[in-house]
Design a protein that fits this description.
Elements: H1 3-8, H2 11-19, E1 26-29, H3 32-39, E2 46-49, H4 58-64, E3 67-70, H5 73-78, E4 86-91, H6 105-108, E5 116-122, H7 131-148, E6 154-156, E7 198-201, E8 204-208, E9 213-214, E10 220-221, E11 226-231, E12 248-251, E13 254-257, E14 267-270, E15 282-289, E16 292-294, H8 296-303, H9 307-312
Parallel strand pairs: 1-2, 2-3, 3-4, 4-5, 5-6
Antiparallel strand pairs: 7-15, 8-11, 9-10, 11-14, 12-13, 12-15, 15-16
The structure holds pyridoxal-5'-phosphate (PLP).
């Protein structure tokens, strides 16, 4: 899964790396333009478009050899304009987003003769929270495959949370979050390594006096003389503004609390208690510093969302690099 710029990691960088691995069969993106970007940057393995296709987008699919996931009768009609007629068929077994229903199978069957069904899939809506519901989804998917009477090369249902469930008739998985090193739920039984760190460097350091108001609107007032560092990383970089006065960065392996409002381009942190802090020093926003570590999940918990949203929210302005 390299949709949403590989969950914020840079889809080209990630796909180039993954493409060299034998067990990677295909790349999945949400939109045709995401697929085009990969093709224009040297990705030659299969690319699936998961988010549905509009009729005016068929040309891009033909031009860049992208495979659509077809999920309703309108999509199936549009897909007749595909040069190679190669598609994956998606069934809705409980998500109520994209996908045909089990009841549609009879009507679909005769229409499939025109196509090469390379894959059949469904999407698990609650693999991270609901065992019974998930098992029922997989059961229904199996029933659909039996009724469909096609022999696709790929059968897939499992996302990151879903890989802990058995699907013995599936032969590939669509793994996103876990591949990037973040657990989809608390007791995830697979050990993971975080792929991306998010770092900045101190741009300025100054002293503030007792009573000084720090940042916009004075939501933090210094109770004592403090030393603060200005970090050029703000909400436009993907740091949720709601972390203002509630979170910290890591500097020299120590916590540097965020003071006052996070601004668009900068955040002010308290480094009074941290020794030997200099301009240009590394600031860790996500990742490790000394024996401390901050994950996307940690930040998501504070602001009340999921790690996915923080991860793919790291904005374009933040330079992605392989070893830096
Ligand atoms: C995003 C997505 C996935 C991957 O989900 P993760 O939880 O990140 O592993 C799999 N399938 C579909 C249809 C998706 O949209």
């Amino acid at each position: 899964m390299v949709k949403a710029d590989a969950y914020g990691h840079n889809a080209v960088l990630v796909s180039k790396y993954l493409q060299e691995l034998d067990f990677i069969e295909s790349f999945c993106v949400a939109t045709p333009l995401e697929g085009k970007e990969l093709r224009e940057n040297g990705i030659f393995k299969n690319i699936l478009i998961l988010g549905g296709v509009l009729k005016e987008e068929i040309e891009i699919l033909n031009q860049y050899n992208l495979i659509p996931v077809i999920s309703d009768f309108n999509q199936l009609e549009i897909a007749r304009k595909l040069k190679n007629r190669k598609i994956h068929l998606k069934f809705d077994t409980g998500m109520r987003r994209l996908g045909f229903y089990l009841e549609n199978v009879d009507k679909i069957k005769p229409l499939l003769k025109e196509f090469e069904i390379e894959g059949v899939l469904t999407h698990l809506s609650s693999a991270d929270t609901d065992r019974e519901y998930t098992i029922n989804q997989i059961k229904e998917f199996k029933e659909i495959l039996n009724l469909l009477d096609v022999k696709p090369k790929y059968i897939h249902a499992q996302n990151s949370a879903g890989v802990v469930y058995e699907c013995d008739f599936c032969n590939v998985i669509r793994v996103g979050l876990a591949m990037y090193g973040e657990k989809p739920f608390e007791d995830y039984p697979i050990e993971l390594k975080q792929v991306m760190s998010v770092k900045s460097k101190i741009i300025s350091i100054k002293d503030v006096k007792t009573g000084d108001r720090v940042s916009y609107n004075g939501s933090f007032v210094a109770k004592k003389p403090m030393k603060v560092a200005i970090v050029p990383f703000g909400y436009a970089d993907g740091l949720p503004r709601s972390l203002s006065n509630r979170w910290f960065f890591l500097v020299n392996g120590k916590e540097a609390p965020i003071l006052g409002k996070i601004t668009m381009d900068m955040t002010i942190v308290d480094v009074s208690e941290i020794e030997n802090v200099n301009i240009g020093d590394e600031v860790v926003i996500i990742g490790e510093s000394g024996d401390k570590r901050i994950t996307f999940g940690d930040i998501a918990n504070i602001v009340g969302t999921i790690s996915y949203e923080i991860m793919c929210g790291i904005s374009k302005r933040v330079v992605r690099c392989e070893k830096c």
